[in-house]
Structure formats: C-alpha cells, structure tokens
Amino acid sequence: MAKAYWVAAYRSVSNPDALAAYAKIGGPAIIAAGGKFLVRGIPTAVYEAGQTERTVVIEFESVAQAQAAHDSADYQAALALLGDGAVRDIRIVEGF
C-alpha cells in the first residue's frame, strides 16, 4: 500500500489568533490519527505561480488514513476554531 501525503498551501491568513487556536488542537489530532509532519513553514523560495505562504506536508500510511484524520471529530473541532481565519488549499495525494 502506498503512503499518502496531505499537502496544505495557505493562500492567506486573515486571523493569526484563529490559526494558532486551530494549530493547538489540529496538530495533535493529526498526529493521534497517524500523521507525521514532514514540512511546516514558509517557503524559502517560490517559482512560477507560487506564493510565499505557509505550506504543510503530512505523511500517512494510506489515503484512507489521511481522509479519516481529516474527517475525524477532533480535527473537525480544530477546523471550527479556524473558521474563516485562513484560505487554504488542502490535497491528499497518494505516494508511489
């Protein structure tokens, strides 16, 4: 079974306090669901249409595990705290 990667690219952050509240419980919820943070921060370089905004990459054992983490009650509680405090693009991609 191929690993899966949850990739989050933040387009903008309008409420840093909401982002901090989200991260406080969202990170632990993802880890508890089997996620391993590989990348978390601002890019050191961007090309083409890239944006210098926060990027997060999380590794999971499978696509199903990544989806279950996202859909879990604990992670959904974190999303409720984030609200409209950030605009993000989240993708789950299967590795090879």
From TrEMBL:
Signal peptide: none annotated. Residues 3-96 form the DUF1330 domain. InterPro entries: Dimeric_a/b-barrel, DUF1330. It comes from the Bacteria. This is DUF1330 domain-containing protein. It comes from Alsobacter metallidurans.
